[in-house]
C-alpha cells in the first residue's frame, strides 16, 4: 500500500477532496512482516478482506453510510482493482476505478477474468495502457463487457500506465489524466446525490 505508484495515485485522488483508505491484503501484510515473497491469497480471502475494510470503516464512520450517505467509490491497482469489481455490486458502489485491470495472466491469455464484468451493475472505469500485457487494446476491444464497464485507454502505456520515451507521453501525465476522469465522475455522482 506504500508503493510509490499507490502513494502517487492516493495523493492525486485525495486532492479531489475524497477520503482515501489504503490497506493491504493478508498475503502482502505477511510479506511486510517476514520479508518473503508470497503468492496472493485465493479470491474469496481477498474479497473478504476488502469487505472487512469497508465494514471497519462503516463502524468507525457510521455517518458516511446512512440514508444521506456520500457515494462510495472503490479503487485498486491490478488484482486489487479486480477484487473491487467483484464486490462492487454487493456494497452498492457508485463507481469503481481500476488502474491496469488484469484481464488475463501473461502466461495464459486465453483464460479471461471477465465473467463478472459481463453483467456487473456498478459503474466500472478501467484505466488501461494500450500495450498492457494483461489486456491490450486490440484484445480487450473484442471482449463482451457490460455497458457499465468503460475502458479508458492510455497511449503506449504498460500495466502501470508507463509509456516508452518515444511515445511523447509520461506516466505522470497518464496518472493525472486518469484523476481528471475520476474527478469528473465523482462530481457527477455527488451532484446527483444532492438532488
Q: What would you say this structure looks like, in words?
A:
- There is one protein chain.
- By secondary structure, this protein is of the alpha/beta class.
- It has one domain (4-193): Rossmann fold, CATH 3.40.50.
- 38% of the residues lie in helices and 12% in strands.
- The chain has six helices and four strands, in the order H-H-H-E-H-E-E-H-E-H.
- The protein has helices at 4-14, 26-34, 43-60, 79-87, 137-140, 171-193; strands at 73-77, 95-99, 123-129, 149-154.
- A four-stranded parallel beta sheet has the order 1-2-3-4, sandwiched between helices.
- Helix 4 links the parallel strand 1 (73-77) and strand 2.
- Helix 3 (43-60) crosses helix 4.
- The radius of gyration is 17 Å and the shape is globular.
- The mean pLDDT is 92.
CATH homologous superfamily caption: Alpha/Beta hydrolase fold, catalytic domain
Class from secondary-structure proportions: alpha/beta
Cα-to-Cα separation, first versus last residue: 35 Å
Radius of gyration from CA coordinates: 17 Å
Largest sheet: 4 strands, parallel
Quaternary: single chain
Number of helices: 6
The CATH first-level class comes to Alpha Beta
List keywords for this structure.
195 residues, 4-stranded parallel beta sheet, 6 helices, 4 strands, globular
In brief:
The chain is of the alpha/beta class and 195 residues long. The chain has one domain: 3-Layer(aba) Sandwich (Rossmann fold), CATH 3.40.50.
